[in-house]
Amino acid sequence: MTIPLDYETLRVIWWLLLGVLLIGFALTDGFDLGSAALLPFAGRTDEERRMIINSVGATWEGNQVWFILGGGAIFAAWPFVYAVSFSGFYLAMFLVLSALILRPVGFKYRSKKPDARWRAGWDWALFVGGLVPALVFGVAVGNVLVGAPFRLDGDLRMFYEGSLLGLFTPFTLLTGLLSVAMLVLHGAGWLSLKTQGPVLQRVRLYGQGAAILSILLFAIGGLFVAWSGMGYRVDGVIDPNGPSNPHLGGAVAAAGAWLDNYAAHPWMLLAPILGFVGPVLALLGIRGQRDTLVFAGSSIANVGIISTVGLSMFPFILPSSIDPGSSLTAWNASSSHGTLFTMLICTVIFLPIVLAYTAWAYKVMFGRVTDREIRLNPDFY
Amino acid sequence: MISMAVVELSRLQFALTALYHFLFVPLTLGLSFMLVIMESVYVMTDRPIWRDITRFWGKLFGINFVLGVATGLTMEFEFGTNWAYYSHYVGDIFGAPLAIEGLMAFFLEAPFVGLMFFGWDRLSKRGHLLTTFMVALGSNLSALWILVANGWMQHPTGATFNPQTMRMEVTDFMAVIFNPVAQAKFVHTVSAGYVCASVFVLGVSAFYLLKGKHIAIAKRSFTVAAAFGLAASLSVVVLGDESGYALTENQKMKLAAIEGMWQTEPAPAGLTLFGLPSNSGRETTHEIKVPYVLGLISTRSLTGEVTGINQLVDTAKVRIAAGIIAYDAVETLKVDRNDLVAREAFERNKADLGYALLLKRFIADPRQADAATIEKAAWSTVPNVPAIFWMFRIMAGLGFAFIAFFATAFAFSSMRRFDARWFLKLALFMMPMPWIAIEVGWAVAEIGRQPWAVDGVLPTFLAASSLTVPQLWTTIIGFTLLYGILAVIEVKLMLATIAKGPERYVPWRPDSPAEPAPDFRAVPAE
C-alpha cells in the first residue's frame, strides 16, 4: 500500500491530535474533576451535594473515555512517550490511577445507602478523585517542561533516574496548582450551567477565586519559563521523515529555548493570549451572572493554557534532563508511517460519530438539576 | 543485567490486576445482552413487569459495571508503567487495537451507559432500548479489540522487526485484525461472559423461587437465563480456542503442555484425561488416554500431527542458532546501517531474532552462548506443564458441566416447572463456578504463553520496565488494599440489592406529586 501522506505530515497531524485529545479530556472530564474537587465545599447538605453529583452523573463516564483514549492513542501513535512517561512517572501514575478508580465507584455507590457517614466517606473519595489527578497532571506537565531524568540505551531501553519526591519542585508545584485552578474554574463553569440556589451562589464564589488564581499562576509560570533557564533546542540536522529512533539527531539544553517558537511564528502567541482571555471572560461572566459566558471562558482557558505548553515545546514532546540526546520529539518518537496513517483513518471515521452521539447524550440531559427532581426522580444518584 | 525479581513482581502485579478486572468484565459482557433481551420483550409486549425486570438486573449490572470501568483504567496504562520495553518494542502494533478499543468501544459504551441509567423518563421506549443495545455492543466490541491485541501476543502476524528503530513494526494491518487466534479467542471469551451472566441470573432467580419471593419476576428471569445460557455454554465449549493451537511453535507448546505430551505421537493423537505431568522429570506418569480424540480436536483431521514437548524443544534449539545470526546482524547494523552483508543475514534469519533474546536471561551477549546455554534457553521455552495441565481440566470440566446444567434448566423452564428445589439449590451452588472457569482459563492462556511476552518475538523477562523492587511492592500492596476494600463493598451492595429485590417503577415527571413516597427521599434507587 502506498501511503498518500508523507511521514512528516502524519507526525505533525498526530502531534496535533495528541493536543486535541488532551484538550478534549480537559474540556469534558476536566469539569468533572473540578466539580468533584468543589463537592465538599460548594455543597453543604446532602441534597446540595447530590445536586452537584447529578449535574455530572449521566455524562461523566463518557468524558472519562477521553483519558482512556488518550492513553491508547499515545500508545499507538507515540509508543516511546507512552513507555517513557508512564514508567518514569511510575508512582505518580499510581496516585492518579488510585484516585481515578475512586470516581466511578463513588458516583455509583454513594447513593446506595442513606447513612450519613457512608455518604460523607464517598464525598471525600470523590474529592480526592477530582483533586489528586488535577494536581498530578499539572505537576507532570511541569516536569515535562523542565525535562525528565531518563536515558535510552543502545537497545532503546529506558532508564529513569528520578524519584516520586523529585517530581515536586517549586515550579512543578506551581504548574500543579495552575492545573487545579484551571480545572476548578472549569468545574465552576459547568456547575454554573447545571445548578441553582445556594449551590450556584457558592460555585460562583469559588469560580471567582479559581479564575484569579489561574491568571496569576499562568503569568508567574510564564515568567519562570522565560527566565529560569529551562528549555531545549534541536542540535544538528534532524530528518522529520527519518526512522523513529531518538539516537538519530541530537538535542541540547538551552536557556529560554521554550520561547523560540513564538519569535519564529508570532501567531502562536494566540495560545497564551487565550490562556489569559479565558479566565478574564469567566470572571466577567461570574460578575454579570451570565453562566454561559463563565463556561465559555473556562473552556477557552483550558484550550489556551494547554496549547501554550504544546506550542512552546514543539517539536519536543518529552525532553531528557540528564541526557538531552535521548529526548523524545515529534520526529523521533512516533509509530511507523503505516501505523500513523491507519490510525488516522480510524480517527477520521470514528471521532465525528463519537462527537455526534456524545452531543446527543448531552442534549438528552440538558437543563439545570432542580431540587424537586433530586427529591423525586428514582433514577438520580 | 535484568533483575528477575522486578520481572516476577511485574508479572504478579499484572496477573492480580488483570484477574481482578476480569471478575467484573464477564458479567458486564453477558448481562448487558440479557438486558437487551429483557427490554426488547418489554418494548414488544408493553407489559410493565418486563421494565421492572430490566431495571432490577440493570441495577445489579450498574454496581458491577463501575468496578469493571475503574479497574480497566489500570489496565490501559499498565503496559506503559510496568512493561515499558514491551510498549516500545511492539507498541507500533499493539497500541493500535487499544486505541481503536477506546475510540470504537469505550466511547460507545460510556456515553450510552449514562443515558441507560438516567434516561428512563427522558427517552422513548425504543430510544431507551437503543441505548441499552449500544452499551451491550460497546462492551462486547471492547472485548473484540483487546483480544485482537492479546491474540497478536499469542500469534504475532503482520509485523516485522526494524533494526533502525529496534522494534517490531506493522507490515499488514489486516493480518493483525483478522488474526485467527484473535477471532477464536473473541468468540470463546464473550461466550464465557454470557455463560457467567446466565449462571448469575439463574442463581439469583433460584434464590427468589426458593424463598417464595418476587415469583413472577424470578420465573421470567429464569426462562431468559436458561435459554441464553444453553446457547452460550454450547458456544463456549464448541468454539473453544483450541483451534488456534496448531498455528505456531508456542501455541503448539501450549497444546502439548495442556496434554502433558512430551513425545510426538503418530496421528491422530490420543486425548489425556488424567495424568501426573512433571517439568523436572520431563514426563507424564499415570496417564489415562482416549485414543484419536486430541488429534481430531486440535488439527480437525485424522492425519494432522500433534507435536510433543521434546520435539518442540529441538526446534527451539535450531531457531536459537538462527536467531544468534540475526542478533549479530542487528548489532552490526546499529553501527553501520548500510552494511549489505549484515542486512542479508538479518533478512534471512529475522524470524528467529526473538529466540536469540531468550539467551539474555543467562548471558549478556547472546553471541557468546555455548551449547549448554543454548540447551538451557531451549528448555526455557517449556511453560509450567502441571499447572497448565490441571487448570485446563478444571476449565474444560466446568464447561461441560455448564452445558448439562443449562440443558436441565431449559427443560424445566420449557415445562414451566420452577419448583424443583434440588435444581434451585444446585443453581445457587453453581454461582461461583463461571468465575473459577474464567480465571483459570485466563491463566491457561497466559501461563501457557510463557516464557514469551510475544510468542517467538520478545521474552517476558526483557519486556518489563526498569523499575525497582520497592516501587513494585508499593503498587502491589496499594492496588491489593484498594481493590480488596472495593471488592468487599461491591459484594455487600450486590447482596443488599438482591435482598431488597425488584421494585415497581413509577416514572418521574416534572409534574409528579410534590411529596414522594417516604423511602424515595431516604434511599434513592440509584
Descriptive notes:
With 381 residues, chain A is mainly alpha-helical. Chain A has one domain (32-376). Helices cover 69% and strands 5% of the residues of chain A. Chain A contains 13 helices and 6 strands. The mean pLDDT of chain A is 93. Chain B is mostly helical. Chain B is 70% helix and 6% strand. Chain B has a two-stranded antiparallel sheet with strand order 1-2. The longest helix of chain B is centred in the N-terminal third of the chain and has 42 residues, at 4-45.
Give the structure's gist in a few sentences.
The complex is a heterodimer of chains A (381) and B (526). Chain A is mainly alpha-helical. Chain A has 13 helices and six strands.
Index terms:
heterodimer; A: 381 residues; two-stranded antiparallel sheet; B: 526 residues; mainly alpha; two-stranded antiparallel ribbon; 19 helices; 6% strand
Per-chain topology:
The complex is a heterodimer of chains A (381) and B (526).
Chain A: H1 7-42, H2 46-56, H3 60-77, H4 79-88, H5 90-109, H6 116-146, E1 150-152, E2 158-160, H7 170-194, H8 197-227, E3 232-235, E4 250-253, H9 260-264, H10 270-287, H11 291-313, E5 316-318, E6 328-329, H12 337-364, H13 371-376
Antiparallel strand pairs in A: 1-2, 3-4, 5-6
Chain B: H1 4-45, H2 48-82, H3 84-118, H4 125-154, E1 159-162, E2 167-170, H5 173-177, H6 180-211, H7 215-238, H8 249-259, E3 271-278, E4 283-290, H9 293-299, H10 309-335, H11 340-349, H12 353-357, H13 371-379, H14 385-414, H15 421-430, H16 433-447, E5 452-454, E6 458-459, H17 460-463, H18 469-500, H19 518-522
Antiparallel strand pairs in B: 1-2, 3-4, 5-6
Helix pairs in contact in B: 1-2, 1-4, 1-6, 1-16, 1-18, 2-3, 2-7, 2-18, 3-4, 4-6, 6-7, 6-15, 6-16, 7-14, 8-10, 8-14, 10-11, 10-13, 14-16
